[in-house]
Amino acid sequence: MAAIIALLVMTIIMVSFTSLASAALSVDYYQHTCPQVESIVSGAVYKAAMNDITVPAALLRMHFHDCFIRGCDGSVLLESKGNNKAEKDGPPNISLHAFYVIDNAKKAIEAVCPGVVSCADILALAARDAVHLSGGPYWDVPKGRKDGRISKAIETRQLPAPTFNISQLQQSFSQRGLSLEDLVALSGGHTLGFAHCSSFQNRIHNFSPNKDVDPSLNPSFATNLRTICPSHNKAKNAGSPLDSTNTLFDNAYYKLILQGKSIFSSDQALLTNPKTKSLVSKFANAKRDFENAFVKSMIKMSSITGAGAGQEIRLHCKHVR
C-alpha cells in the first residue's frame, strides 16, 4: 500500500510539471510586437556585468530557481507582501541577487513596448545573455511565457539541494521532465559562481561518524576548504568559487569533479552513477559537446510550466498586476 501511495504522489508531482507545447513558445514571439526586446535585455545584462562580475552567475542561477518552482513563470522575482513570504525570501534563495537587472530591462522594455513582454521571458533571455557574455554558447530563446501570480517561500524546499545524492537529483529532475543528461549538462552551470561555506560544510566537517572529511575530496583541496571555512565559521561571506575559472563559462567544472575538487556533494554525486559519470568524462574532454548539451537542456528546462501556469504580463516584475 505504501508503495502504491508513493507512486501516486510521484505521478501527481510529475504531471504538475510539463514542457510547454512547441506552439506555445516561439523564438519569433515578439517579432512584430517588440522586436527590440533582445537587444534591450542584452544591453541591461552587459551594463550590469561590467560593473559587477558576479551578475552572470546570479542571473543563470535565478532562472534555474525560477523554473524549478511552478515552472518558468517569473515567480522568483515577486516580492513578499503582507502575510505571504515569496520565493525570493525562501532559505535557498536568500543569496540570490541582481534582481535589479531584470527590473531595469523591464523598465526599458515598457518604455517602447508597454504591456507586451513578460518578466519570465526577460529572465530567460537574461540567463542566455549571461552565459554568452561569460564566453559560453549563444542560442535562440523560445519566448511567449506568461508571468505567474503565486510565489511562496515554502515551495523553495522543492529545489535540489547541494547535499543531494544521485537518486535525489534524478528524482528532482525527472519530476520536471528532465533526463540524466539534462542533469549533468545543467549542473555545468556551476562553472560560474561562488558557494558559501554553509552549502558544503557537510563535506569538510563531521562528514560521518568515522570521517571528518568526505573521502572523495582531494586531500589538499579539502585542507584548503577547511582553512577558508573552519568548523565554527562566523564570516558571513566566506566560501569558495565553484570552479577554478568561476567567471568564465567553460568545462573546467567537469575536470575538477574528476580530480575530486568539486564543491558540492551533488557535484561529486554525478560520479556515483555509470551514465552520469560517463557524461562527466565526456564533457570534461570535449567542451563543444558540453556546450551543445547545455543549450539543448537549457531550452528544455526553460520550457517547463507548472500547474496553473503564468497568467499575465506584469507591469513591474516585483508585483502582480
UniProtKB/TrEMBL annotation:
Catalytic reaction equation(s): 2 a phenolic donor + H2O2 = 2 a phenolic radical donor + 2 H2O
Q: Which GO terms describe its molecular function?
A: lactoperoxidase activity
Which CDD domains does this chain map to?
A: secretory_peroxidase (cd00693)
Q: Which residue windows are transmembrane per the record? A: none
Matches recorded under PROSITE patterns:
PEROXIDASE_1, PEROXIDASE_4
Signal peptide (from-to): 1-23
* EC code(s) of this entry: 1.11.1.7
UniProt-listed Gene3D superfamilies: 1.10.520.10, Peroxidase, domain 2
- Give the similarity note: Belongs to the peroxidase family. Ascorbate peroxidase subfamily.
Role of this protein: Removal of H(2)O(2), oxidation of toxic reductants, biosynthesis and degradation of lignin, suberization, auxin catabolism, response to environmental stresses such as wounding, pathogen attack and oxidative stress.
Could you tell me what this protein is called? Peroxidase
What is the originating organism of this protein? Stylosanthes scabra
Taxonomically, what lineage is the organism?
Eukaryota, Viridiplantae, Streptophyta, Embryophyta, Tracheophyta
